[in-house]
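Problem 12. The chain below contains 183 residues. Write out its predicted structure in token notation.
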Amino acid sequence: MAPASRISTSVLLTCAAIGVATGVLSAGAGAISGFVSAGAPILYGLVLGVHVLPGVVAQALLRRPWVALITHLIAALVASAVVPLWIGRYVGTALLIGALQEGMAALGRYRRWESWRFFVSAVIVGVLIAVSIWFAADVSRFPLWAQIVYIALFVLGPVLWTAVGLAVGAALRRAGVARSSRL
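Solution.
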């Protein structure tokens, strides 16, 4: 007899549904990111912040190990289907953010789901992305005020999208979606 799976089909299907929905959003963010970068580069951090959404919604809803990473990877595959050229970016971002979100949940032994934990991981994600973009986009060419706002929005973007994800996850829990997703 085969050993029981650690993650139920119901949980995987819920992760898949969240991953598809947020993957479409990620693809949309990817589609407009070039225009935002060229036309209003200072707002780029708000657009990139959407990439925290899959894991936040999954963890807020399901409150289980591995759901952030699984959902992020599904979202990355969906976004990659729309923009195959960026598969490396999408999967790399999914692994980075998903692992960070899983790490924050693991610190609480997957028993503590306070909102502040989600926001701490969002700030860390924002800082990591801001540092990498600083060099890639040569942010030092902007005036000092623009550099400060640019970096602040890279931190604020994931925080705002985390708030959206927590609200969506809470609404789905109230609707009873989590009850049908058993481990």
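Discussion. Residues 9-39 form the longest helix (31 residues). Students who got a different answer should revisit the alignment rule from Section 12.3.
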